Amino acid sequence: MSRLSLAIFCFLFVSTIVNATDVHYCDKNEEYEVKVQGVDISPNPIARGEPATFSISANTDNAISSGKLVIEVSYFGWHIHSETHDLCDETKCPVAIGDFLVEHSQVLPGYTPPGSYSLKMKMLDEHKKELTCIKFSFEIGFGSSSVADM
């Protein structure tokens, strides 16, 4: 029985590592003021018609009083959606020096096609200066959603 428990633990641990979101800076040569440590997507893959949360852990050496998040989404390489959010709606402002978390939750419509998506997010300060820019991919599952969502 203990070998089975160990095997399940190892499988879950490896699955967690494999499902980690791979994040890249938009410009590898840029020294962004905001450093992103990681992105957590829950659930992963995202279920159509259900809430999805993107949690971005980051760090800054300078306080941020306000700003914007500019998000662009692509589906199999085709730009399909853009939106802008007030930074202070997604995290506590002013953002203090050190670690902070940006969290965005959204329900995707039931008619959202399943498959591979990529997201590009720019964080801008109140003067429209780019503080960071990241890219990562995510999946929308093939799970069904109710007809009422359509």
Give structural notes:
The protein has 150 residues and is mainly beta. The chain has one domain (21-149): Immunoglobulin-like, CATH 2.60.40. The protein is 14% helix and 48% strand. The protein contains 2 helices and 8 strands, in the order αβββββαβββ. It has a 5-stranded antiparallel β-sheet with strand order 1-8-7-4-5. It has a 3-stranded antiparallel β-sheet with strand order 2-3-6, with no helix packed on it. Strand 2 (34-42) and strand 3 form a beta hairpin. The termini are far apart. Residues 1-19 and 144-150 have low confidence and may be disordered. GO terms for molecular function: sterol binding.
| Topology-level CATH name | Immunoglobulin-like
Low-confidence stretches: 1-19, 144-150
**What summary fits the major beta sheet?**
5 strands, antiparallel
Q: What Rg do the Cα atoms give?
A: 17 Å
Question: Structural class given helices, strands, pairing?
Answer: mainly beta
Number of strands: 8
- Proportion of beta-strand residues: over 45%
What would the principal axes of the Cα set say about the shape?
A: globular
- CATH architecture, please? Sandwich
N-to-C SSE string, H for helix and E for strand: HEEEEEHEEE
Oligomer: single chain
Highest-level CATH class: Mainly Beta
How many helices in DSSP terms?
2
Span of the ends, CA to CA:
46 Å
Average of pLDDT: 85
**Helix share bin:** 10-25%
Strand order of the largest sheet: 1-8-7-4-5
Our count of domains comes out at: 1
